[in-house]
Write a structure and sequence with these properties.
130 residues
């Protein structure tokens, strides 16, 4: 509950801003959500367009103050990392891929007897005050 006219006005402005920010944030998340399946399925051309749209949406949200600029940069970086990995995997030719390594089983060594424990050195007697 507000106690002054200026506080009431501030509350009304905050509600309007919250609704506006929510729509921008939702649109940004939708763009990212559309890009991720395309990246994972390695549809490079479609994924590139979706990643560009998502990056633009993140930049706009940061410019409007809806999200922090570092938050936008971090999310764009993670998206681009995934896209670049998918692009590299799609471009890789079969010759470049390493064949799966076969596990080589070596014969077990016979168990060696454990070394005998070392004898502890005798302690010197404590000096007592007399």
């Amino acid at each position: 509950m507000t106690h002054s006219p200026s506080a009431e006005k501030r509350a009304r402005r905050a509600d309007r801003a919250r609704l506006r920010n929510r729509s921008v944030r939702s649109a940004t998340k939708t763009q990212i959500r559309e890009a991720l399946p395309l990246i994972e399925s390695r549809q490079v051309e479609e994924a590139e367009l979706a990643v560009r749209k998502a990056a633009a949406a993140l930049d706009k949200a940061a410019k409007k103050g809806v999200i922090h600029p570092n938050n936008a940069a971090r999310r764009k970086s993670r998206l681009m990392t995934k896209y670049n990995a998918a692009l590299a995997a799609a471009v890789a030719t079969p010759e470049e891929e390493a064949p799966p390594k076969k596990r080589v089983r070596r014969p077990k060594k016979e168990a060696e007897p454990a070394p005998a424990p070392k004898a502890k050195a005798a302690r010197r007697p404590r000096k007592t005050k007399e």
